[in-house]
Design brief:
- The chain contains 16 helices and twelve strands.
- The protein starts with 5 loop residues before the first helix and ends in a 5-residue tail after the last helix.
- α6 crosses α8.
- Bound molecules: glutamic acid (GLU).
Length: 468
């Protein structure tokens, strides 16, 4: 059984869905293709004085909307194929959750552990400079964000570099996922994991789907295994356990652990910080290899690491009834078919992990509006709520305590609004996927997600009047 390269995998999924749409083959080709690919190399002077050549990419997959949007990945596995695949996934992801951006992705081929902080800063600033020089970054052009191996710190360096070379009033909107002090938004760090939780919660609330896989509705009481405790995996697990699900297995770079009685996430994170490893935690059993965790007995498997983890080789051993794709491309096309054949419910990456870009969109809006969410209306709302509560007190025997008054009259702050916008987006998008699945009598949410994306992008191209 053959597993394809990553970009081919994405296109294979695309082709499977395209037959359910009404678009001209030329238009479908235009949607599929990566519009611009920039490959750059530059020298880095290392702390010890030696010179190393660094390789990076930025791929803008689809210009049907501006700006294009997508993270920057730092990993020794980065290459052109991977960046193209991830950029394409960004286009589809944005369309599925109605974020008005085209898709893009960047990558630098380095293993972050091999570089000092000042070396990482030099790499990030130089990479940004190369993007600026070729017009691959800007608030209305292409807006990077964090991805595997990068975070708020790197986004802060990117903004600072951009600002040095531009007097654009909207400069802050050239990158998202920034530190709060540099125009970032509350709720962005946890957004992808939070979105994963909202998506799984939605899926688990559909009785007919749960009946089919022999599970009760609701997240509470379900067991799950997570692969990867990075930003996405950690936050997804945090909200899953918060809602009463039981974490029974964890896989990380150093290996995997299993405890059917449940693993305490906070205690595990502390243990890993102290010992540098998850191995030996509490009463857990150690598994021979990291990938064995994927095959554990559980209700929900959450791959939250890198692509191509569930392949034609191990898919048949996977027992989870729900696969929640928190990572990008964790399941190969062959593996997908094997899992579907045995009835698994797959929540596809392009929907499930879209929470990050949804909140990036809110951050970008905040930056171009130059005002924090809640700043204008919070106090006004609070005083209106207080007036209503006072009226209730006056016309009834009900008296509110100071604490109740404070709680009930609370005006929305930035975090509240971001979280509510994210929840609304994940729920609405899931409903759309279910409608498409029903309309085409499909048994597959990945194909439904691609149909949703192709339809939304295709209509944009049609409106440009180029295609019949
Ligand atoms: N890197 C994240 C993703 O793959 C976020 C992208 C963004 O916020 O632009 O979805």
């Amino acid at each position: 059984m053959s597993d394809y390269k990553f970009y081919e995998q994405v296109n294979k999924n695309f082709d499977k869905a395209a037959v359910y749409t009404r678009f001209h083959p030329g238009l479908l080709k235009q949607i599929k293709i990566c519009n611009t690919i920039y490959h750059v190399t530059f020298p880095l002077r290392r702390d010890d004085g030696t010179i190393e050549v660094i390789e990076g990419w930025r791929v803008e997959h689809s210009h049907h909307k501006s700006p294009t949007k997508g993270g920057i990945r730092y990993s020794h596995k980065v290459d052109e194929d991977e960046t193209m695949a991830l950029a394409a996934l960004m286009s589809y992801k944005c369309a599925i959750v109605d974020v008005p951006f085209g898709g893009a992705k960047g990558g630098v081929k380095i293993s972050t552990r091999d570089y000092s902080v000042s070396e990482l800063e030099r790499i990030t600033r130089r990479y940004t400079y190369e993007l600026i020089k070729k017009g691959f970054i800007g608030p209305g052009v292409d807006v990077p964000a964090p991805d595997y191996g990068t975070g708020a710190r790197e986004m802060g360096w990117i903004l600072d570099t951009y600002r040095q070379l531009s007097d654009d009033l909207n400069a802050e909107a050239c990158v998202t996922g920034k530190p709060i002090q540099q125009g970032g938004i509350r709720g962005r760090t946890e957004a992808t994991g939070r979105g994963v939780y909202f998506g799984i919660r939605e899926a688990c609330s559909v009785k007919a789907d749960m009946d089919k896989i022999g599970l009760e509705t609701g997240v509470e009481g379900k067991t799950f295994v997570v692969q990867g405790l990075g930003n996405v995996g950690y936050h997804a697990s945090l909200y899953m356990t918060g809602a009463g699900a039981k974490m029974v297995g964890v896989a990380e770079m150093e290996g995997a652990i299993y405890d059917p009685k449940g693993i305490d996430l906070t205690a595990l994170m502390e243990f890993r910080k102290e010992t540098g490893s998850i191995i030996g935690f509490g009463n857990s059993k150690t598994l021979p290899s990291n990938k064995d965790a994927l095959e554990l007995e559980c209700d929900i498997l959450i791959p939250a690491a890198l692509e191509s983890q569930i392949t034609g080789d191990n898919a048949k051993n996977i027992k989870a009834k729900i696969i929640g794709e928190a990572a990008n491309g964790p399941t190969t096309a062959d593996a997908h078919d094997i899992l579907k054949d045995r009835g698994a419910l797959i929540l596809p990456d392009s929907y499930l992990n879209a929470g990050g870009v949804v909140v990036s969109y809110f951050e970008w809006l905040k930056n171009i509006q130059h005002v924090r969410y809640g700043r204008i209306n919070k106090r006004f709302d609070e005083s209106s709520f207080k007036k209503i509560l006072n009226v209730i007190e006056n016309i009834s025997d009900r008296k509110f305590s100071d604490d109740e008054m404070l709680d009930l009259s609370h005006g929305a702050e930035e975090y509240d609004l971001v979280d509510s916008g994210l929840e609304e987006t994940m729920i609405t998008a899931y409903q759309q996927l279910l409608e498409i699945r029903n309309e085409h009598k499909l048994n597959d949410l990945r194909t439904s997600a691609y149909i949703s994306a192709i339809n939304k992008i295709g209509i944009m191209y049609e409106q440009m009047g180029i295609f019949p």
